[in-house]
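Note to self: user wants both folds in one dump. Writing first protein now.
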Amino acid sequence: MKKPNSKEYVPYFKKYIDLVEDGNFFELFEENTNQIIHFFSSIPESKHNYKYGPDKWTVKQVLMHINDTERVFAYRALIGGRQDEKTKYNYMDENWYADHINVDHMDMSKLVEEFSAIRLSSKFLFESLNEVQSSFIAHGTEAWFSPQAIGYAMIGHAVHHKNVIEDRYL
């Protein structure tokens, strides 16, 4: 898959896509997957439930947010990849999702394992798409994406949150 042009996604996601280097998408995706797994696996247990402010997420909540977002992104990529013009996806309220799962009791290793499984599933989806399918624009109620834009946004979104944790949590 090639790096998307700016007409393949809503402007909000430019900040994520811009975090992704040029190169072979599948190599970048695999490298990012390994980087995120290693990063979260190496965070000391004393920081797992830490948050830097009263209305901020814990480190485990950030990883759960990445997991939830990747599931939503994968569904959107499936709509585009199947060139589905009828299905409109909806906005995801990440704070609603975070408020409706308690990760305090969950083990970080399980959240990392979950991330790995989601990424593997997404990899299979992206590998199944040809050039036409990967550039098909799927429309939501408030946004639009091509599957390749979603793939790059997945990488950049994970990088963004890794950077935030490095800057504000560790």
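First done. Writing the second protein, which came from a different request thread.
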Amino acid sequence: MTDENLPRFGLPELNFLTVDATANEKRIIGAYEKITGRVLANGDPVRLFLLSLAAENTQLRQDFNLAARQNLLSYAQGEYLDALGNMVDTPRVQAQKAVVVLRYTLSHYLDDTYVIPAGTKASDGAHIFETLNTVEIGPGILFIDVIAEATEVGAEYNDIEIGEINTMVDPMPDMDSVENIQKPSGGADTEEDSVYADRIRLAPDSFSVAGPHDSYEYFAKSFSSAIIDVSIYGLNEYPGNVYVRPLLTGGTIPTDAFLSELYEFLSDENIRPLTDCVLVSAPEAVNYEINIKWYLDSSNINRITQITSAVAKAVEEYRLWQQSSIGRDINPDVLIKMMRDAGAKRVEIQSPIFTQIDKSQVAQCSVSDVSISYGGSEDD
């Protein structure tokens, strides 16, 4: 959760009342001494009593500030933020179920149509998915792909490796196997305050149906809290086309199943203008590698263990930062700064190099493509 004392959206800090314990003590004791004409010694019982009153007054001022801030979108948290969202008809997005495409394969060709009922379950041993619709495998056809949904909500159902959902919870005659042909995606926990507040800020653009950029962004992010970024754009050569490219938590590229559900949501007649042609697709991944060598200031040699850990953490934060936004250029300067802030004296970067990323692309680097080496210590 965002620190309730720090405003969102880069706005300056706002206090409704000044909270200064020292000034408060001086004000209260000064007022007493002025009224009574008596100077209080440090150990005077009256002084100690007034100090306790001053402390209580300071705490009340702090509590008032915190309470008043909860009326502001830049500060509101939890149920207070929910109340602000309800004022603009923007409820918090609740936890979502992951979706996946399962392939059911028969053990042999059949002469008759084979029916797979809606709700047929498959599992990887820990997570269960069930088909959304009844589907049929026609005569002379060996397999069919069907969209399935997790039986429970949450992000933990995402990213199960291809082929691992291979246990038929509901065995069927003549059915040889089931497996997921893509990783599940779209599973999400309840929308976090920071993301929810940003969506409330976009809410006025949704008072009409979609059309403006911010309106489509609002509706796309309202579909699932798993969407951390979305690129909305049009092309002059194709007027009327609206291109929507969502990005999921952790920089995950959405699957076809997730994109299909988002398309259906955005195509609703209460969202899409009649003349818009909505095209939903995944952002194009621009893959890169991280290959770096870093050096330590010899004066910090006794802290090499802590700094080595901090440098590795900085590199991982850079990797996630780089792939958490569509159209974000691959910028090694940011990586150097983050590593130096972590304690590196100097950084040599073999890769990445600066690469421009357009509005339909997202930079991607897997953990296995990260190489960090230590070059030794150097005098300043």
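Dump finished. Worth passing along: The helical segments are 21-36, 45-69, 78-87, 193-202, 213-223, 256-266, 304-322, 332-341.
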